[in-house]
Amino acid sequence: MSPRVHEPTSPRKKNRRADTPVRPSAPQGREAHESRSPRKKTSSPARRLSGSPDLKQEGVKPRRKKAPRIGAGATAVIFLKEPREQCLGRLLKIETAGVWVRGIELESLDAWAREVARGESAGLGLHSLFVPFQRVQKIVADERTDPIPSFAERFESIAGRPLSSLLDE
């Protein structure tokens, strides 16, 4: 008896009939990429109707409005809880324990703007305070939302002076 040579077979080949043709395996790696047909880039229906060029095809990135940074030096509205208050001011420092702000309560902003317009210095004014994060509900950048002006623009229209010049003093 001659020794039998054992040839490894895959499970797929074991169950195949002898008359079934073997499919070629799919190309791998670089061959797979080159064998695919290139996709045609189409623009959106809105772009086709408007007649504007497809920005992706030309390699031009659309310009986005930059989001304001909420950090030290930014003018922001801080919503507080227990007691419920709103404060407008310049963020001086943000720490893990809370926020340092130089500002004024939002309820008294208009009255203070009228005092500044009349040239009065006694009465309402800015104060520096520390607010622990337990009281902070949210911090929102003071920015214009068309057609609504920001609080800084509203202050300037009443007082005749920019709010930033007073926050820097």
Structure, described:
With 169 residues, this protein is α+β, with helices and mostly antiparallel strands. The chain has a domain at 75-168: SH3 type barrels (Roll), CATH 2.30.30. The chain is 27% helix and 21% strand. Strands 4-3-2-1-5 form a five-stranded antiparallel β-sheet, with no helix packed on it. A hairpin with a 3-residue loop joins strand 2 (85-94) and strand 3 (98-105). The N and C termini lie far apart (106 Å). Residues 44-52 have low confidence and may be disordered.
Distance between the termini: 106 Å
CATH class of the domain at 75-168: Mainly Beta
Number of helices: 7
Helix content: 25-40%
Strand arrangement within the widest β-sheet reads 4-3-2-1-5
Structural class: alpha+beta
CATH architecture of the domain at 75-168: Roll
In total, how many beta strands? 5
Chain-averaged pLDDT? 77
Shape: elongated
- The SSE string, one letter per element, is HHHHEEEHEEHH
Query: Low-confidence runs (pLDDT<50, min 5 residues)?
Result: 44-52
Question: What name is given to the CATH topology of the domain at 75-168?
Answer: SH3 type barrels
Largest sheet: 5 strands, antiparallel
* Percentage of residues in strands: 15-25%
Rg (C-alpha, Å):
34 Å
